[in-house]
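Example A, followed by Example B.
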Amino acid sequence: MSQIPLQNKDKIDTVHQDQERAIEVVSDVAYVQLGIVNAVFIGRHGAPDREWTLIDTGIWGMGQRLEAAAAERFGENSRPSAIIMTHGHSDHAGNLLYLAEKWNAPVYAHLSELPYLDGSAAYPPPDPGVGGGVMPILSPLLSRGPVDAREWVQPLPLDGSVPSMPGWKWIHTPGHTVGHVSFWREVDRVLIAGDAFITINQESVYAVATQKPEMHGPPSYFTVDWTAARQSVQDLAELAPLIAITGHGVPMQGDGMLVALKILAADFDTIAVPRDGLYVKKPATTTNGLAYVKP
């Protein structure tokens, strides 16, 4: 695998060190870095109770930090109208149960992702054989779930609309998981990509610590279908976003970001796909596209 370096001037990273504040990307979109992963707020600063939305919830143990960031942006005791999930991996859904119960908020995810969020199925095993750094080696220690949020979770509308997010649509971007979704707003070409692609080498502990920006495919040790992942990146590159907020790494903007994304889409197999691994030649086998069956 190789990576595509990005210029620091393209980063949206003005208060990166303050993890209890949301970093505003545009007036009604902000992100919070929670350790190795990002959560996203949709709503203007000071939006009233139930008039903003949370996308993803970060790794376990970061729930109170996310609450503090929400309070700083929207006011004390302000609650989201909904929690929307790009996918259910433990680094994105680690605080889902805590926050859904605390805020009594509905949770939405793609229909194919629901088994991993309603207690029905665990994710396929991670792939430590992809190489490239310490994170793949440690990946068997990461939780595969399932998260049991059946009391709150429901499928995203089939028409592509996103509850409580007018002007946005969800796009099915499978590969990293079977039900992974990204979010797109055409009017200002803002893309929330989740882990369909990321702006950091997530396999490298050093890159994660320094947040060195580079265009990268989905985290390889948890990606279960590389053919679908390639198509998802190509679909997102076709949108020509002006701003990309990803699940890992800092948000990026401008021509440099778009050129790097198009290069990733055009040469995905060389840049993103590992040489070896469980799912490189054949994706994880599923039953009806849902529950995992070990190959």
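Example B, a separate protein, is given below in the same form.
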Amino acid sequence: MSLLQFLRILWARRWLTVITALSTVVGALIAILLVPPSYEASSRVMLNTLKPDPVTGQILSTVSSRTYEANEIELIKDYGIVGKAVDQLGWANNPAYIEQYQSTRNQTIDIRRWLSQRIIDHTKVTPVNGTNILEISYRATTAQEARAMADALRNNYLDTSLENRRREATRLADWFTRQAQEEQGLLNAADEAKTKYERENGIVMQADDTDVDTARLRALSSQGSGGAPMVAPMPVMTSQASIQLAQLDAMIAQAAQNLGPNHPQMIELRARRATLAQVAAQDNASARASQALAANAAGSGAGAMQRAVDMQTARVIAKRDKIQRLNQLSAEVKLRRDQYTKSITRVAELRQEAAIADTGITPLGDAVEPRTPVFPNKPLILGGSSALGLALGVLLSLLIEFFGRRVRSLEDLESSFGIPTLAVITGPAKSNYPNSKSARGVFPAWLRRRPLARA
């Protein structure tokens, strides 16, 4: 079928197409008039997933933030939050809603649950692309109802989130408190067992988990680790007299270059040297005696130190089993103390979290009352119905033509019989009748290419 044949068919059945298009448009207009309008109001909240928690200081990872966002979306549409919104707005006592509820056949649930399910069906929570903002949208028959419910859902969501966080923190704090009390009892029992064992065996454990005998042995070992002290020999002429004697020898050597041996000055210098030499000899003798006494005393002290170390070592070895048992008791006390400290610390953190007023969610203003309904969208419905009517009209025209094929032109005749046309006989003109149409007025000029006249 050529494009010209297709256009001839549409033109011949143009009224069917027009009637079909008008019918769909009229149906759309009736639907617009009968269907009540729907208004949609939106309220937004921002999830503070990028900021650290004010109590724990933790920051959610990318995967955790996605899970958290999905949980919050489902939480907003939960019956607990929606039911609070119903109570807050007083819809369960509204006569109009009561009448609608009573007209329903399914009354197995109460009106609060019925209204909550209705609100859930008309609520949409969507994340804003590229942000951590959630948009809470509610669709209702009036703009006031849509705005009120959007704000109510947001406010109850914030209150419920804070309440859940506090309740969970309080529950965990109570549990850790009970654990801390049990651990404190175990700590006291372990400490008493350690103290009793120390009293029975005469062993005292110091603050660094070392018993007194072992600590004393370490101290003695560190003192005697250097061995017996070595006494250096007395250096020659270290006394004041020795220093003066050396200076006097230098003066005598210098004077001998200019003076003779019998010079009075030389004789006096030699006399002075003899006197200083006696004094220096006495000082050196005293120093050597003192060094000998110090060496003897050091030798006797090293022997006593070694004997003390040996005695203390024997005492520690004799109490090795008891000390090992005491170390075990001390380790248990330390473990119980660490557990108790961690539990107490966790209780303090949870008590602080239970008293916090930050939910980690920031409201972003109140919902705005919509001015125009989102449904029905009159331009969209009318345009769509017109396009649909035209498409249906064209389809019906083609179907009718397919089941009742007619010859409308020379092309149709040739395509039907498959034989060439020898001649075309045109009908008589009707121009003699002023009130009648001519044969050329049946089709427009662009469709009258080689028309087939009726005999």
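On Example B: Confidence is low (pLDDT under 50) at residues 227-237, 431-443, 448-455.
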